[in-house]
Specification:
It comes from Taxus chinensis (Chinese yew). By secondary structure, the protein is α+β, with helices and mostly antiparallel strands. The chain contains five helices and five strands, in the order ββαααββαβα. The chain has one domain: 3-Layer(aba) Sandwich (MutS, DNA mismatch repair protein, domain I), CATH 3.40.1170. The chain is about 30% helix and about 15% strand.
Length: about 160
């Protein structure tokens, strides 16, 4: 594994801290029952108002719980990849915002990046290039402020 340290911020629930675990053998990107979660994420994305968030939302797909378009740069969900490992967490916690520690940042991808940009006031990482997946994050030292912003906007931490 990549030794991922991930925080889950649940909408309407408390947050969970989970540590990266071994690779799981799962070929299903979208499993039975996940359509309701994708519909839920779609509703959340429709509520986004900021121009930068709307540009990110336009790059999402609704074929996996991360919202990643595999045709975009850094969108691969190949077995064993970083994105694949994030997807394994998302399959366990489909309606939570996952913040993954990468070096001195907590990063998000796809749906979660849109939520962070819209509600926590962070800028998209790498700008809003049309050929890359939505990505956002905050420095480790700003994690508390970011979680507070999510809490103020209806998410529990």
């Amino acid at each position: 594994t990549h030794g991922i340290e991930t925080l889950c911020v649940r909408a309407q629930w408390s947050s969970k801290g989970i540590q990266g675990q071994g690779k799981k053998k799962s070929k299903a990107i979208l499993r039975e029952g996940h359509h309701e979660h994708l519909k839920w994420w779609g509703q959340k994305m429709q509520l986004c108002q900021k121009p930068s968030t709307k540009q990110l939302v336009n790059k999402l797909v609704y074929s996996n719980l991360l919202g990643l378009d595999e045709n975009l740069k850094n969108g691969s969900i190949k077995n064993g990849s970083f994105n694949w490992e994030l997807l394994q967490f998302k399959l366990r916690f489909p309606r939570e915002v996952l913040l993954c520690r990468v070096g001195e940042f907590y990063e998000t991808l796809g749906f979660d990046a849109c939520i962070l940009v819209e509600y926590a006031g962070v800028n998209p990482m790498g700008g809003i290039r049309s050929n890359t997946v939505p990505k956002a994050g905050c420095p480790v030292m700003n994690l508390r402020q970011t979680l507070d912003e999510l809490t103020r906007n209806g998410f529990s931490a």
